Amino acid sequence: MPADRLTRTYARALYAEAAEDREQAAGYCQLVAVAGAIAAEPRLLQMLKHPALPISDKVALVLKAAPSDITTATFAPFLQLVLRKGRANVLRSADEAFIEFWDEDRSVLRAQATSALPLSRDEKAALTRALASLSDFTVELETSVDGALIGGVAVRFRDRLIDGSIGGKLKRLSEWLQEY
Amino acid sequence: MQGRPDEVSAILRDQLQRLEKQIQMVGVGTVLEIGDGIARLYGLADVMSSELVEFPGDLMGIALNLEEDNVGCILMGPYEHVKEGDEVRTTGRIASTKVGDELFGRVVTPLGEALDGKGPVVSTGTRPLEVKAPGVIARQPVKEPLHTGIKPIDAMIPIGRGQRELIIGDRKTGKTAIAVDAIINQRETDVKCIYVAIGQKISSIRRTAAILEQHDALDYTCIVAASAADPAAVQYIAPYAGCTIGEYVRDEGGHALVIYDDLTSHAKSYRQVSLLLRRPPGREAYPGDIFNLHSRLLERAAKLSDARGGGSLTALPVIQTEEGDYAAYIPTNLISITDGQIYLEPELFYAGIRPAISVGLSVSRVGGSAQTKMMRAVAGRLKLDLASYREYRAFSQFASDLDETTRNILRRGDRMTEVLKQDQYVPMPPAEQVIAIFAGTHGFWDDVKLSAITDLEDQLLGFVHERYPEIENRLRTELQLDDELSAQLSAAIEDFKSRMDRQNLITEDAASEQGHEAPDEAASSDESAAGGSLTDPDE
Fold first, then answer.
1. Within 10 A of B531 (CB to CB), how many other CB atoms are there?
2. pLDDT at residue B521 above 50?
3. B24 contacts A168? CB cut-off 8 A
4. Would you say residue B401 lies in a domain?
5. What are the pLDDT digits (tens) for A42-94?
6. Cβ-defined contact of A160 to B23 (cutoff 8 Å)
7. Residue B12 lies in a domain
């Protein structure tokens, strides 16, 4: 789910703390993802929101689920703040917003390529290179398969979709014929 | 699709070849929330205002609110299948509707899809719903009359081609009837008509279409229907669609008449959309741009300059008042935007004076320049005389003894009121209107019983048509009434009166009593004559 304005505000604040150190940022990214996974579970989210439970217990619960080797110096106060303000919902999509800020900082572009058949390693590399030359970003490409595309490939990154699939072309042809 | 098979094949081949190389780049977004005909979308950073966006299942929406982190969008159809997280794509197209001659004779949705079961509308083109109104240089003053065929309107509140004239009144006072009559009257003219039904019952729209069809008026009329069952977003764009269809006619050098029935419902649908889009509410919870909503629509009605083809788009917006409160928010907005208003009074309507036009409150700011010379000649003082008659009539109720002058004013006014009554769906040609009004204003009916005037008027018109065709022909061709023609017309009417049944004349005693005739009594005595013309106003 896309992050709303409030979530982005919290995520930006956390990222500002984490950005000082690259390794720390990677660790925080994992922590936010863990918190997000917990908040995504309705019963656990209910627990995080429960007024009778002490906030320290709730924070401990989230940190216990996190990998033990990550430094959590700023993350614990962040969690405390979020829970004290009754904003547990923010945790559900904070990881997405955090990653977005982190990617922007590192000049990383995450792209999702969908094709009718699985892409070979060479095809992936060629596609990554093409996208990198288009955007001047380091491309991190994820792939998936969707038979409905019939052929070709459709690449989505940020709020753009480059549709070179046969399915898309046929759809456009059908629209053109209807208008004509 | 038109053209020879080989041409069509070539076009298709060309399109297929281009398709081979085409890679489409579109903006994509995600549905954050959806409901009440509104969607909030995440992403779509490059979406344009009023751009069409495509939802799953071929559902289209129009992007209206472009905010920092989301896009507010109105939905143009059923959206039950769309859920949170679904992908939405931009189309690169601004919201537009079909235009062209093919739309006339059809009942369509605001996007130009057929609703009448006569097959799909194959139009020659599309145009954006929202365009800027023609500027000062592109226009010329309103000077050609647009006859409605309704005597009191053509005589006292003349409408010109390119004018915006508001039809305002309570419910069931005959607003739609005036609009439909105006359309029917264009049968013999080159004016194309667009009737935009906003928020009406589907049965009412069906009935209007049937009436137009029955009077051979549907062939040159396009009905744009956004019924009460349609989403508020569809009702909101309906008048813009009707205006766009009319603009096509105007820009091609033709003449179009567009009727927005009614803009009260339109304002309400826009209020609903705006509140759901979380725009700040203002007076009566309408958004701040409610004035601009209507002014930018009505400004598109124009008479273009000769250099631009000389076409015209005339607008007759309809507004419904509550309990005659024409000083409410939306009515005052519309009154200030338009070039005049036709105000319909329930009291007149129920007194049997139909069309129930209030002479005092109705006005056309274009005035005599949108009138033929002959009509100006016979009806120049009619409005003032009738207004003063209404005042005398009101005061005469308290007086027991009236002087001769007052009695004459009342007698003439009663008769003019009778002359200006008209049945529904029977528009009258300008030449006949001039004869009818001439007879009234020149006192030929002063000694005739009130209840007989309607019938005698019909007989007079038939008489002149049969015995004095040259008068009617000259009026029709020359469009002016000089002294010579006035004398001929007077002689013709005298001739008619000398032959008519003497029972229709009032006696000396009755004549003196006429001055005391209270309006209600006059109205009730008229009922027998006007009884046949009592028709449901809004049907």
1. 9
2. no
3. yes
4. yes
5. 899 898 999 999 999 998 888 888 887 776 677 888 889 999 998 988 888 88
6. no
7. no
CATH value at residue B511: 1.20.150.20
* pLDDT tens-digit map of A113-153: 999 999 999 999 999 999 998 888 899 999 999 999 999 89
| B32–chain A Cβ distance below 8 A for any pair | yes
Three-state DSSP class for residue B51:
strand
CATH number for position B294: 3.40.50.300
Q: SS3 breakdown of chain A: % helix, strand, coil, rounded to 5?
A: 60, 15, 25
Report if residue B303 sits inside a domain.
yes
> Exposed, middle or buried, B230 (CB in 10 Å: 0-12/13-18/19+)?
buried
Q: Are residues B231 and B107 in the same domain?
A: yes
What integer best gives the mean pLDDT of chain B? 89
**Which position has the token pair 């537009």?**
B96
In chain A, positions 2-21, which contact chain B (CB-CB < 8 Å)?
A: 2, 4-5, 8
Alpha-carbon distance of B10 to B18, in angstroms, equals 12
Last residue within a domain, chosen from B69, B93, B117: B93
Residues B381, B322 share a domain: no
The ipTM is 0.74
Confirm or reject contact between B72 and chain A (CB < 8 A). no
Q: Mark whether B334 and B432 lie in a shared domain.
A: no
Work out how many domains chain B is built from and give that number: 3
Q: Do residues B91 and B54 touch, judged by C-beta distance below 8 A? A: yes
pLDDT band of B524, cuts 50, 70, 90? very low
Interface A–B counts its CB contacts (< 8 A) at 52
pLDDT tens digits, one per residue of B341-397: 999 999 999 999 999 999 889 999 987 788 999 999 999 889 888 988 988 888 887
Is the domain of B109 the same as that of B159?
A: yes
Whether residues B66 and B115 share a domain: the answer is: no
Is residue B107 domain-shared with residue B243, that is, in the same domain?
yes
Gap from A57 CA to chain B (nearest CA, Å): 32
Q: For residue A159, which residues of chain B lie inside 8 Å, CB to CB?
A: 27-29, 43-46
Do residues B205 and B347 share a domain?
A: yes
Range of the domain at B184: 98-131+138-369
Question: At residue A103, does pLDDT exceed 50?
Answer: yes
**Chain B contact for A164 (CB, 8 A cutoff):** yes
Looking at the fold, whether B516 and B481 belong to one and the same domain comes out as: yes
Residues in chain B with CB shorter than 8 Å from the CB of A161 are 25-28, 89
Candidates A159, A161, A166, A180, partner chain B, best to mutate (most B CBs within 10 A):
A159
Please name the residues in contact with A161: beta carbons below 8 A apart, sequence gap of 6 or more.
A154, A155, B25, B26, B27, B28, B89
Question: Please, are residues B128 and B95 in contact by the beta-carbon 8 Å criterion?
Answer: yes
Asked if residue B43 lies in contact with residue A159, where contact means CB atoms within 8 angstroms, the answer is: yes
Confidence class for position B434, pLDDT limits 50, 70, 90 = very high
Can you give the pLDDT at residue A24?
77
